Amino acid sequence: MISTIRRVKVSALITKREKQKRGFTMIELLAVLVILGIIMVIAVPSVVGYLQDSKQKYYEQLEDSVMTAGKEYFSDHRSLLPRENGQIYSVDIADLVTDGYTSDVLDSDGNGTCTGEVYVKRLATADFEYNACISCGQVDAAGKREYESTSAFCTNGSTGGIPGWVCDKPKEDPTDDCFMIQIPSSFKVPQCTTVEESAASQGIFLDGVVLNNGEDIGDRVTADTTSVDYKNIGNYKVYYTYKQVLNPSGEKYNFSVNVYDDKAPSDVTITMHTDSTTGEEYSCTTRENCSWTGKDVYITFTANDLSDCGTEGSGVARFMYRYGTNGDWTSVDATRITQADGFDIYQATIVRDTTYDGPIQVKAVDKASSSGASSNLESAVSQAYLLVDQTAPSCVSSGGNPAWINQGTRILTGTCSDANSGCAGNASKEYSADIDSTTESPGTVYDNVGNSTVCPGDQTVRIDKTKPTVSLSVTSQDSRYHTTTANVTVGQSDNLSGVTQMCILLNDNNVSNCSWQNYTNAAQARSTNRGYDGGSVTYYAWTKDAAGNVSNAGSASYTVYRQCSTTYTDWGGWGSCSTNCGNGSQSRSGTKIDSYLKINCGSDSQSQGCSDNSGCPPPSGGGGGSDGGNCCWVDWNNPHGSHGSCVKDICTTWANGVTNQCGSGCSGSHHGWGDEQCVWFNCS
């Protein structure tokens, strides 16, 4: 019917809007509101029911989670489990959160409003029954919370009765007795203290008061504390027996007492060993009786948590230690070790593997809060001393020198410094053999516990005890002959410091007479101190290296050129033929010249045959020679040597028969001679 109405109305609305193009009418709006109201009436209860069901499932799961955490807690603290059948102990969920057995227990809105406990009951079968009773959410005006556990165990309370139930109704029948025993609430008892002593110190009246229908009938019941082992921490029951009166759960009236650890652990014993927990013992209580070590120090803390009556307390949870007297504390978990006598000790070991000079302080922290104490308890602070040096010493190298030496030794020193255990000594290294290095180290320095450092390799050591070698070559300054000044070239080799100086002596092999000069491989012009007499000299040479080593002598001989041993002749002209008509001889003289020195080396002469027809009479037939008598006889006294010659076409002056040129004053040219006559001579 609803859907029909909706379809009709919507269809009508659309039709109307299409036609009239205007807003909704009041009737249409009312119809829509009616439809929405019907939907809400149907939907809201379903949604509310779904939400409530979800919350219920959430809290059921939360109870299971809390109960699991409680089981783990009692599994780790078995001494807190009930020891007699029917006993019921509990742990608060706040303690489960504090001790890390569960995260925060939150209500369905994520707020930390939940409270409650996990109960454990010992059954006759020696098994245990666990129940989690929680209450979550804010308290409303009616005093109720959003959720409270509804199991039979929780609704009847931990004693099985209805919370707040008392037998206080008036008698309807004189024989209608309704007895109950008014007993103290649960309280805590320090370990090794009896329930009676603890109750008295807290002002708690321990006797039970018998009520009948809410009235004190004057009977008092002595508390039965025999089930309480006050020497051992745990939860116990104190029982009351009066006739056959039982509490609403069908048990003897009882209340719980929590025997808790109220004594701090023992002072911590500190033992130390090097390299391992079983290594050499390192005893160091004060700095005055302490010695340095360069090894890792294994520091073992030992404590117990015995009560004043000799029983185990809550146990040591951890050790807190620090280096120094005011540093931050560091925690290390303790390990329980059960000894042959049945008692437990607690230990932890730490390792110091860095340099330290100072005290170490430690204290033990127990688990007293888990036994019901308001907080964990700490022992007094124990202290030992440590002198650990694992820092290498420093070293400064010295003694090097860039200067070369050729005798003795060079000693390098490594000066050690160490701010901790101190230096065992300095390093030293002696050099005596040939070396050329700028990266030498004097060695390694050690501190008093064996840490070491190689000294810097930054020292220069230069030792050269080996003589250099020398070679010598002597050449002339003129490639044709040996001059009196020679070119002397000195060669050398040296494997280390290098040759820096040289010396050259003439005819002297005594190095003491040397005047040293800087070494050069260029030729040196050195006089022989001789003339060109063909004599010989010997040059000696030495080299000296940068370290001062002097080579053995090198030598080379040199012979000077003897003058006039190589000559040539500067000849004069040939003389006149010994005859002027026929064959004769002629001679010439010259000067001997040294081929290289160009000096006069004496005279020289030379002769040869000759012929001359100039003095012969003209041939018969006249005219002169074979040219048909056209010769002209020149004056025999011609100073130019053409006398007696046949000259053709003689010019107005004489011809020069020596130079083959016309005489002075003649133009033209002379064209040579042939045999004893002119070929032709043209002068004008």
Protein architecture, described:
- This protein has 684 residues and is mostly beta strands.
- Helix content is 13%, strand content 37%.
- The protein is built from five helices and 43 strands.
- It has a four-stranded antiparallel beta sheet with strand order 1-2-3-4.
- Helix 1 (2-20) packs across helix 2 (26-76).
- The longest helix has 51 residues, at 26-76.
- The protein is elongated, with a radius of gyration of 70 Å.
- The N and C termini lie far apart (173 Å).
- Residues 1-21, 157-166, 168-175, 620-644, 648-659 and 670-684 have low confidence and may be disordered.
Report how far apart the termini are: 173 Å
**What Rg, in angstroms, do the CA atoms define?**
70 Å
How many beta-strand elements?
A: 43
Give the helix tally.
Answer: 5
Give the percentage of residues in beta strands. Answer: 35-45%
Q: Tell me, what's the shape?
A: elongated
Strand line-up of the largest beta sheet = 1-2-3-4
Instruction: Give me the secondary-structure category.
Output: mainly beta
- Please state the average pLDDT score: 83
Please tag this protein with its features.
684 residues; mainly beta; four-stranded antiparallel sheet; 43 strands; 13% helix
What are the SSEs and their pairings?
Layout: H1 2-20, H2 26-76, E1 88-92, H3 93-98, E2 115-122, E3 128-136, E4 147-148, H4 152-155, E5 179-182, E6 187-190, H5 195-202, E7 208-212, E8 215-221, E9 234-240, E10 253-260, E11 269-274, E12 297-303, E13 316-323, E14 330-333, E15 335-338, E16 344-352, E17 356-366, E18 382-388, E19 394-398, E20 410-417, E21 427-431, E22 435-440, E23 444-446, E24 452-454, E25 459-463, E26 469-478, E27 481-493, E28 499-506, E29 517-518, E30 524-527, E31 536-545, E32 554-559, E33 567-571, E34 582-594, E35 600-612, E36 632-633, E37 646-647, E38 655-656, E39 661-662, E40 668-670, E41 673-674, E42 677-678, E43 681-683
Parallel strand pairs: 6-10
Antiparallel strand pairs: 1-2, 2-3, 3-4, 5-7, 7-8, 9-10, 11-12, 12-16, 13-14, 13-17, 15-16, 17-18, 19-20, 20-21, 22-25, 23-24, 26-27, 27-30, 28-29, 28-31, 31-32, 33-34, 34-35, 36-37, 38-39, 40-43, 41-42
